[in-house]
Amino acid sequence: MKHLITLLSGLLVCLGLPIIASAAPAGDWQRTSEVDYRLISATNATGGLETIRMGIEFDLRPGWHIYWRSPGDAGFPPELRLREETNAADVTFRWPRPERFLLLDIETIGYSDRVILPLDVKPALPGQSLNFAADLNFLICKEICIPVTNQLSLSLPGGDPTPSEFAHDIDRFDGLVPPSGGWPGLELAGLALKAPATEGEPAVLEVRLANETPLIDPDILVEATPDFWFGRPVIRQTGTETVFSVPATGPGGEIDGLTGQMLTLTVMQEGAAAEITTPAPDTIGPAATLAEDGQGIGTFLLLAFLGGLILNLMPCVLPVLSMKLVSIAGYGGAERRVIRLGFLVSAAGIITTIMVLAGGAILLKLGGAAVGWGIQFQQPLFLAFMTLVVLLFALNLFGRFEVALPSWLGRAATGTTAPGLGGHFMTGVFATLLATPCSAPFLGSAVGFALAGSPVDIALIFLLIGLGLAAPYLAVALLPGLAAVLPRPGPWMIRLKQVLGIALLLTAVWLLSVLMVQIGSLGTGLVVALLAVMSAVIVFRPAVTAIASAGGLAAVLLAAGLSEGGPAGKVQTDLAASYQWVPFDRTSLAGHIAAGRTVLVDVTADWCVTCQVNKKLVLDRGQVATLLASGQVVAMQADWTRPNDDIAAYLASFGRYGIPFNVIYGPGSPDGYVLPELLTSDRVLTGFEAASGGQIRVADR
């Protein structure tokens, strides 16, 4: 029997068949309580390959991570040191795109879950068997960090280099390594290094990228020599251009040694990454500050909620307040359940409308169009539609028009017929639309952060704005007794409705004045005539109210559409002349700044209620108006009543996407002294003194 076994074994060898199946080209798993890891190969043998593709496979427990080649604020990347017994000549890591981690304001860069770090291994003698042996060092972190050191080894025969069972996995992670030079359509449009704004702050490396389409959820990682540090960028996007403002610092807080160095820029967006190598700027430009966007999203979510809440108290509250007061007054003596449901439906109308606006902003941004807060008021069709809606609400308050949901929907919501439920929802809808021409403290910063960020950022920020705007409704829904204490509806409520109806008619007049700037007096006159005819039909023929409303809507929108692009009225020109404004022009602005002049840039629009309040109460009164007329200040007005890409780009350069926006330039602030949304005389005069570098002094403030 023994001789038979020996004979069969010899026969198998002669036929070239293995006696025992060969092991897969992988080292043994090394296991700890935090991570399992091993060495794997993409081929079963070396053949004549001059470079053998291998990889280190990490399987990390939830919450643990390892580091990228530039780890960020802390940590160190995995490293291999070849041992003496190996016959590999060299080994090089290839680094797939990483992710960011944040723990207690310490930001690091690396990998979590499962990752394979591809390796390029060069054998000392290609074609022969390879005995790879190296010491692996890496750091794995969660709330604590644990250094790991171990030996990895793997032997490959010198036969045919067929793909192994690990080839696909190594290829998949190798495909995540950012290629050099970028993807088609990506271009480095500019690079600037700016000094710190104040002592102790980092410098700013400004990277401008142009792409064929807007980048989605962009990020950038910057590398230089190890003694320089680069933080998370502030990101601004305008159409297809993306600007990354990256905090940068070097040894002793100085950045002089960065000039002329080679930089590696790893650009990432959703589904793509690229690596660009470029020399750093040779010079350091004027001081710059990082925009507010550098704060965490939690801060901006809070600002969004506060901005939405304060929006209830802004100047555009007049028509909104009319709707709210009527809603509250109608609940006098009502049951708590009815009160709660009505206010919840109104809040739902507000939040639904805000999220529709968010969806529109996301689609416009993905399409490369300019986006901003309240820009729907730049469209004549929207203005005509809102004028019609406000007029219908006024007629409703006068008792000539009712807004109701279908009875089946009312029964589905309450179990009974609820003809007023649709009116409550529409109150929320149009209260929101009419509130958007206003800005408020905190709102500009929050909207700027959202529109410069990803679609998720836009959705979250707008949701919090909606919750803030709906907070009064939600408060009454939570405490319905606040409305139940009102007296029951009676003659007093009819008189209140009439007063508030007049307020809405005044709102319609204001909307028509904005429309006149858009389409001229002839087109606006046609819209007014159609609105008058429709109103007469509703007042004198209530039975055909629905037909009149639908026909009026179609006719008014048709008139506005046919008149769009017509000659604008002279309201804007006359106003600018009386206030001695000069038209906004970025080239002219740069010339004034270079000449050392003090310049006030006022980005405004006829539909921006807060802008008009700022003019009436601050810019056109007292010491501010005197200073503007004195010749010491160049007053430059950027009118955003109609769409203007140059103005939109100018706003975006400050991370802003809504108005009012006012900034003062001068020798003391060549990059601009930004004023708050709500102006006060003291803040404006202080801005003039600071921006002018002492050239302007205002006494007796």
Write up what this structure looks like.
Helix 3 (297-311) crosses helix 9 (443-452) and helix 5 (336-366) packs antiparallel against helix 10. Strands 12, 13, 15, 16, 17 and 20 form a six-stranded mixed beta sheet that branches. This protein has a five-stranded antiparallel beta sheet with strand order 1-2-3-9-6. Strands 21-23-22-24-25 form a five-stranded mixed beta sheet, with helices on both faces. It is elongated and about 100 Å long. The protein folds into four domains: 23-174, Immunoglobulin-like, CATH 2.60.40.1250; 187-290, Immunoglobulins (Immunoglobulin-like, Sandwich), CATH 2.60.40; 297-563, no CATH class; 571-691, Glutaredoxin (3-Layer(aba) Sandwich). It has 19 helices and 25 strands.
Largest sheet: 6 strands, mixed
Low-confidence stretches: 1-22, 291-295, 403-419, 543-550, 559-578
Percent range for helical residues? 40-55%
How many H/I helices? 19
Layout of strands and helices, then pairs:
Blueprint: H1 2-14, E1 30-31, E2 35-41, E3 52-60, E4 65-72, E5 79-82, E6 88-93, E7 99-103, E8 106-112, E9 114-123, E10 130-141, E11 145-156, H2 167-174, E12 187-196, E13 203-210, E14 219-223, E15 229-230, E16 234-238, E17 241-249, E18 262-269, E19 272-279, E20 285-288, H3 297-311, H4 317-329, H5 336-366, H6 380-397, H7 407-414, H8 421-435, H9 443-452, H10 455-478, H11 481-484, H12 491-540, H13 545-563, H14 571-578, E21 582-583, H15 586-594, E22 598-604, H16 609-619, H17 622-629, E23 633-639, H18 645-653, E24 661-666, E25 669-674, H19 681-691
Parallel strand pairs: 12-20, 21-23, 22-23
Antiparallel strand pairs: 1-2, 2-3, 3-9, 4-8, 5-10, 6-9, 7-8, 10-11, 12-13, 13-17, 14-18, 15-17, 16-17, 18-19, 22-24, 24-25
